[in-house]
Amino acid sequence: MDIDDEVVIIGAGICGLATALALHRKGINNVVMERSETLRNTTGAAIGIRQNGWRALDQLGVAETLRRTAILIHRDRTVSLDDGKVHEILMKGEFRCLRRKDLIDTLYDELPSTTVKFGCQLESIKLDPNTSKPVLRFSDGSAILAKVLIGCDGGKSIVADFLNVKPTKKFSFCAVRGLSNYPNGHSFDHDFVRITKDNKFLGIIPIDDHSVYWTCAHPYVPRDERIWEDLEVIRRSSLDLLSDYPREIQEMIEITDAKSLWFSHIRYRTPWDLLMGTFCKGPVTVAGDAMHVMGPFLGQGGSAGLEDAVVLARNLAQRGSIQIENGRKVTVQGVEGAFHLYVKQRKMRVVRLSLQTYLTGMLTGTSSRLRKFIYIVLLFLLFRNPSDHMDYDCGRL
User: Fold this and answer.
1) Within this chain, do residues 275 and 344 fall inside the same structural domain, yes or no?
2) Residue 207 maps to which CATH number?
3) Pick from 240, 266, 292: which residue ends a domain?
């Protein structure tokens, strides 16, 4: 068994790479163990980043690079095809839609070349009885004794399971995402457009003058999940689903880059599970979707993960004792206290985000007038300013 003298991060998604970069900025060496054989920068299409997420990206030192890849969105427009009503407001704060590839690649390029190790599928975690450090075993038979472990391995996190975090649940909704490219330029304004009809939701956000990100959420119909591995099946299903939408929507789906298409059944952790959950144990904690996977209804899942990265690294640098071993900086003491403070600082933030997302998702997914009324009342009472979550500042790194 190898002895690893660095902070170990599981998962090289957005949160994993952001956490690695935040630690790197604080002078704390770390290694990211990624199950894929290559960088996962082709799935997920794109991600909307509100002003709170841009504050975190500023702290990570990559915001200016990323701002050059995406236009500023000016308005938030909701269109109901059921009754023809249009609601339009000016966008509050900075909002841009980033290609997931641009975000992943930018974070990755800022890290030392040896940080991410690919083809490392984590299978199990146990605490060493002598040192109380986590023993990580991988599918290739290798094992390491880590000093610090951070799980950024998504909604089906093995690290979260080790911490006895409650399993995720599923909304009654599923979602399809895609990127459409217009070589000669598109005609969409710099707006975030939501189009609703018959309990279906379509969101459209231009990335730049030639690319548009779209996502469609609709009630989930149980069927063989393997059919969604066929990208053309996803495209045809989306065209059928939105056949009564305007022709420009059909054209947008027809020209979508097949490699960008992605289907998922929307998962979440309940707000009460987050409130009662224990998200750290000794030198082990979780961040991003591994802690607080939520529906896309507020567009805050990715930004919340970026906030986690900044807060976690700041606490580890401030509370963890750093010593030099063989010319390398290694966090060896104070980790448990740092992680407890990190969880304390993040818990109510993600509970409120998850509760607002949950109520919004349930409102979107129900056809019952009574339930709609109840969800609207709860949202009004609990979130008088529905955009307040965008004003959050995770602080300096």
Assistant:
1) yes
2) 3.30.9.30
3) 266
Distance CA 87, CA 194 (A): 10
Q: How far does Cα 335 stand from its chain's mean position?
A: 25
Which residues contact residue 171 at a Cβ distance below 8 angstroms, ignoring those fewer than 6 apart?
A: 220, 265, 266, 267, 268, 295, 361, 365
CB distance 192 to 205 below 8 Å? yes
Residue 268's beta-bridge partner residues?
A: 169
Question: What is the spatial distance between Cα 393 and Cα 395, in angstroms, rounded to a whole number?
Answer: 5
The whole-angstrom separation of Cα 56 and Cα 51 is: 9
Q: What is the pLDDT of residue 320?
A: 66
Is 211 in the same domain as 301? no
User: What token pair was written down for 27?
Assistant: 């002078």
109 with 184, same domain: the answer is no
- Domain of 119, CATH number, reads 3.50.50.60
User: Domain check: are 51 and 106 in the same one?
Assistant: yes
pLDDT band at residue 378 using 50, 70 and 90 as cut-offs: very high
Total of domains in the chain:
2
pLDDT band at 61 (very low <50, low <70, confident <90, very high): very high
Q: Which residues, at least 6 apart from 356, have a Cβ–Cβ distance to it below 8 Å? A: 298, 379, 382, 383, 386, 389
Task: Give every CB contact of residue 337 below 8 A, 6+ residues apart in sequence.
Answer: 319
Estimate the crossing angle of helix 301-319 against helix 14-25, to 10 degrees.
Answer: 30
pLDDT tens profile 219-255: 887 766 677 778 888 899 899 989 889 899 999 999 9
